[in-house]
Backbone:
């Protein structure tokens, strides 16, 4: 959009509303100044008409007898050129019908309006109250129900490449010699896959391609790996030792793939155990 500086730019909602309020305030201020100028001019003329009323006979005589009545009126009654012209623009029959109460009544109303306008223009608080009142009146007269809901935005989170991965069914296969691979789908005959000479099937676990697979070794430690980093099941896989650093003599005994809030019972050969979620077990 084009801002107050006249230059196009991309702005957020707060910037747009802030600039609009500056524009609105300036517009209202110019409108009030324009009206104040009109009121002051009218008051000035009313002062001259009041002088004419209080000296009506002499004013009429000057108008009838003087070749140049305007300077004569200005000189005789101390009128300005604007006041003298306003008197001369009235027809004599209208001039004779001038009523003091009517002049003073209009004068009183305009003086009140003048004071009110000057008060608003001189006070930031009064200006803000006027803006608020006018906006509420416009909303009442022209507003309609909101067509889209306003919802509090959740805190932004940085997305990793892992978050963009599709969720596809996969089967992770582990061999007796610690070789691992990933196969697409859940209808895999894991024991029937091709293994290295002297090697064979040990374990398989089913999950999603965007879920980590957790390997639990014989010492009770767990290790999480993204399935996308594992080799395809079309080959014989790769040794886990190339991806994990196991303690000396430790072997991988189990694999897990669950949702983050899935509860697991973890137990040791000494009879101790505890319940945890898959996420806290090392899956995330």
Residues:
């Amino acid at each position: 959009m084009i801002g107050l500086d006249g230059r196009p730019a991309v702005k957020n909602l707060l910037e747009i509303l802030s600039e609009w309020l500056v524009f609105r305030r300036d517009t209202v201020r110019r409108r009030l100044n324009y009206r104040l100028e009109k009121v002051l001019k009218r008051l000035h003329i009313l002062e001259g008409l009041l002088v004419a009323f209080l000296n009506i006979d002499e004013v009429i005589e000057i108008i009838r007898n003087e070749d140049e009545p305007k300077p004569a009126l200005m000189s005789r009654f101390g009128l300005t050129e604007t006041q003298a012209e306003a008197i001369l623009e009235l027809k004599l029959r209208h001039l004779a019908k001038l009523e003091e109460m009517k002049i003073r009544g209009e004068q009183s109303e305009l003086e009140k309006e003048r004071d009110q306008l000057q008060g608003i223009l001189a006070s930031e608080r009064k200006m803000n109250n006027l803006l608020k009142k006018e906006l509420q009146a416009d909303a009442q007269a022209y507003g309609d129900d909101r067509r889209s809901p306003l919802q509090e935005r959740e805190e932004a989170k940085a997305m990793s490449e892992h978050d963009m991965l599709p969720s596809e069914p996969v089967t992770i296969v582990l061999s007796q010699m610690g070789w691992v691979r990933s196969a697409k789908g859940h209808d895999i005959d894991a024991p029937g896959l091709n293994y290295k000479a002297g090697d064979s099937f040990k374990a398989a676990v089913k999950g999603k391609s965007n879920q980590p697979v957790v390997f639990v070794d014989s010492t009770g430690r767990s290790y999480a790996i993204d399935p996308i980093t594992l080799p395809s099941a079309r080959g014989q896989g790769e040794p886990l030792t190339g991806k994990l650093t196991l303690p000396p003599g430790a072997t991988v005994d189990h694999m897990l793939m669950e949702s983050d809030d899935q509860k697991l019972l973890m137990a040791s050969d000494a009879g101790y155990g505890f319940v945890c979620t898959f996420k806290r077990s090392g899956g995330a």
In short: The CA atoms of residues 174 and 270 lie 26 Å apart.
